[in-house]
Structure formats: structure tokens, C-alpha cells
Design a protein that fits this description.
36% helix; 3 helices
């Protein structure tokens, strides 16, 4: 059962550089978690940021949720980086892939 986390956020003004360093480190560390599948980042035209992270199972997701460096980054996020955020964690109930290898 794949677990999908969708993290939406907005940054406070002037924190982009420091936030980028922390975000890059979290991206490096999450890849060390057994059960990590992938992550994607998007920034909307209005500045909202969206991160989508997938894990093989709930245990993998919980391992990342309790990872000490991740907990410290979350604390910094609330104290320094985010003006707003929303997080949802869901179980993937359907998945279909298409890849046009000819293009």
C-alpha cells in the first residue's frame, strides 16, 4: 500500500536561500529511508509550493516522520520559514502509468 504525502506551503519573505539549503538536505536524507519511492516539487505562479512524496508503506512513512533531522527541519519550518502550510497523508488506492517511449 503506497503512502502519498502532499505538503503545500507558502514561505515567509526573505527566507528562500536558507530554506533551500534545508529542503535540499531533507531531500538527500529522505532517500536513505528504506521504502522511499520518490518526491516531486512544484511552485505555483502565486508562490504556493507543493511537495509530493511517496513511500512503499506506512512503516516507511512513519520512519521518515520520526527521523530526528526531519523533526528539527519541521520545527525550523514553523519558526522560521513558513507563513502557512497544509499536509495530507493518504493511501494510494489506484495507480496507472503511461510512458510513450517513442517521443
Amino acid at each position: 500500500m503506497t503512502i502519498v504525502t502532499v505538503f503545500r506551503s507558502r514561505l515567509r519573505p526573505g527566507v528562500e536561500d536558507e530554506y533551500g539549503l534545508v529542503a535540499n538536505e531533507m531531500s538527500r536524507l529522505v532517500r536513505l529511508i528504506d521504502g522511499f519511492i520518490d518526491e516531486r516539487f512544484y511552485v505555483a505562479g502565486d508562490g504556493e509550493r507543493v511537495t509530493v512524496v511517496r513511500f512503499r508503506d506506512l512503516e516507511s512513512h512513519r520512519t521518515w516522520a520520526k527521523y530526528p533531522e526531519h523533526l528539527a527541519a519541521q520545527r525550523r519550518g514553523r519558526e522560521e520559514f513558513y507563513s502557512w502550510y497544509d499536509i495530507s497523508v493518504s493511501q494510494e488506492i489506484y495507480r496507472h502509468d503511461f510512458d510513450d517511449l517513442e517521443s
